[in-house]
Amino acid sequence: MAVDFEPHELWSEAARRDRHAFYARVRAAGEPVPQIDPVTGKRFWVLARHADVRSGLRHPDIGHEVHRHQTGPAAARSRVPVREADRLGARQLISLDPPDHTRLRGFINTAFTPRTVARLETRIEALVDGLLADARRRGTVDGVGDLGDPVPVAIIADLIGIPPEDRERFRAWSAMMISGGTAWAAATGQFAAYLDDLAAKRRADPRDDLLSALVALQIAGDSLDRDELVAMIQLLLVAGQETTVDLIANGILALLSNPDQWQLLKDDPSLAAAAVEEIIRYDGPVEIAPPRYTFQLIEIGGGVIPPFEIVALSVLGADRDPEVFTDPDVFDIKRSDAKHHIGFGHGIHFCLGAPLARLEGRIMFEKIAQQLPDLRLLAEPDQVRGVNPRLTALPLAV
Ligand code: HEM
Fold first, then answer.
1. Which is the closest atom of ligand 1 to the Cα of 360?
2. Interface predicted TM-score (ipTM) of this complex, two decimals
3. CA dist list (Å): 267 to 100, 264, 270, 365, 366
4. Which residue range is the domain that position 175 belongs to?
5. Domain total for the chain?
6. Residue 289 CA to ligand 1 centre (angstroms)
7. What is the pTM of this model?
């Protein structure tokens, strides 16, 4: 039962060492599990069953814009960001509920189509071929820094239409905005000013890129305003970086730690697309979906969550739920139930970049299997612990 949980257990050494054991206990609790955030002191509620996480992700009374539902001082406190970086953050698709979310998603769905993504295929192939040739020459590589990192940022820059001469600056801003550290707000301000300038150029002289498409786009007489445009581009950049790097690094680790699966992929590299789905299910980049609030008392997961409290929906826990996946702790690239994973989310915020992440992942694993057949782990990987841990180094011999 939920009372068996310590208030900060999610951050405990034991839960961080074995996240899956922790979420197995949450699923078994049969009710939302309260935890206290050690930094903010706020209570939030963890859910980890597949059915509960899905229902939380699509619940109309669980969302982001809590101030719209509150009254009095609480509402006033959670409104009106002062810094530009916070103001832009509040205008991001991922932080909004309908109707604003629906409107912004309509714009980006129109501009960022499956065709836009398919057009990037040859560029991704060339980039990956180059990285792997380099890896063969060097003999040893870091799976994170040398194989994972370079692809997503280069492809997103291409997609947006960042000119070659600005790529280095773009890469630096991107790293600072993702780090969320002290440089984050300053980098966001500089990036916003840079985009204002580039958007003006594309308005005057459109190219075949996403920025030109977004500045020109009119839907029923409506268009994106300046903050919406900057926030959208910024979100694409931030949401698709670490996640895709993690997909590549976690995938290499899972394959090399399961030699039978690695052999299967080498024997038949056309399994790469299936392997990507299994990697996301088995060790996906997202542990807990971005936090949401209850807008009223919600009955969910066998219990109730009071109004205006934070809900932590564990995608990782859901994707190891034995109710949905046979032998969920087994990494099996040929499993038929991998398609039920919710590693890209579910409902209205379903990952906009999923087709791109899938394409990048498929090409990467296909080519690694073909071109680096002797790949092996040289040492234990390094990682940052904490909630949403990530690999920071993955030493490999080619
Ligand atoms: C949303 C995962 C790659 C752009 C999401 C969500 C998840 C996710 C779980 C839902 C968040 C929520 O419900 O609050 C992933 C994973 C990726 C990946 C695992 C890589 C393996 C990308 C890429 C891009 C991207 C490459 C951009 C090109 C977005 C955007 C949203 C989103 C814009 C917000 C959509 C909305 O709020 O309507 N992603 N993502 N993602 N993702 Fe991804």
1. 26
2. 0.99
3. 48, 5, 9, 13, 11
4. 2-397
5. 1
6. 10
7. 0.95
